[in-house]
Amino acid sequence: MFDLPDSWVWDFWLADDGERYHLFFLYASRALHDPDRRHLRASIGHAVSDDLVSWTRVADALVRADAPAFDETATWTGSVVRGDDGLWYLFYTGVRFEDGRNVQRLGYATSTDLMTWHRAPDNPVVESDPRWYELAGNSPWNEETRRDPWVFRDPDGDGWHLLVTARATEGESLTRGVVGHAVSPDLRSWRVLPPLSEPVENGFGQLEVMQVEEIDGRPVLLFVCLPPQASERRRAQYPRGAIWAAPADSLTGPYRIDEAYPLADDDLYVGRLLRRRDDGAWLFFAFRHMDADGELVGGVTDPMPVASQGDRLVVQRP
């Protein structure tokens, strides 16, 4: 398990450089006292491991930028990939308040070694397109939801896909969560496209921290949504569902959000899958979310095996 005694640790993502595993995570000082204040103090920390169990903290990856900047308030969740140019790319969410509203945009930083990161000069590179996505000015959430990028190579071509937490422009508020989409030929220039899912009656207000993988030949989309942000119908069926898996027709969708099923209750949050290098086994990680009193715990779990049972994934929790 990875934890910090002086800070809350929550959203995270993983990378494998072929020799070591890398854990990137959001953290904020416990000196804030109130864990709800952590979001606007978030920085991106970094740790490394040889075995996915024992982690060594190294220098932070990113902190918020000096104003004026799209990420002047906080740096939020992202993902890391290696480009065809040999550079590592860290895509992340930048937060800035505009007219009292939380506006989220996506940027990236690059590194030659995963240790020292430099922001791209052309940030931000992905913003909401009002043709398909809800903007801050017309959102009952008082924010412009454009966060948690998951970037992966096109399985059928030479380009790249980016999935992002987003909201549609129509529908009941707690069903508007969709899989936002953008594409790029080179990881630097991005074109925003329509979402890869639709709002559904038993859906979600938001699909946070997505990841898509193919497990035992079946594409599956992981995302998270706590019960208060899910539709009434979804809450009635799964009153404690928090980490979700949805089947997909392919890695690039469409994603069948109406068929989503829970992988874990709200004691865990942010489910991540990683394929272990030595044996190819798929492992599941999460951060410890709520204790029995409903208080934030924090810290990333040890890896847990996942298995297919019928057409579903099952996490084998200790």
TrEMBL record:
InterPro entries tied to this protein: GH32_Enzymes, Glyco_hydro_32, Glyco_hydro_32_N, Glyco_hydro_beta-prop_sf
Entry coiled-coil feature ranges: none
Enumerate the UniProt keywords alphabetically: Glycosidase, Hydrolase
Q: GO molecular function: any one? A: beta-fructofuranosidase activity
Q: Answer whether the UniProt record assigns the keyword Hydrolase to this protein.
A: yes
The alphabetized list of GO BP terms reads: carbohydrate metabolic process
Q: Cite the CDD domains for this sequence.
A: GH32-like
**The protein's name in its UniProt record:** beta-fructofuranosidase
Source organism (scientific name): Microbacterium aurum
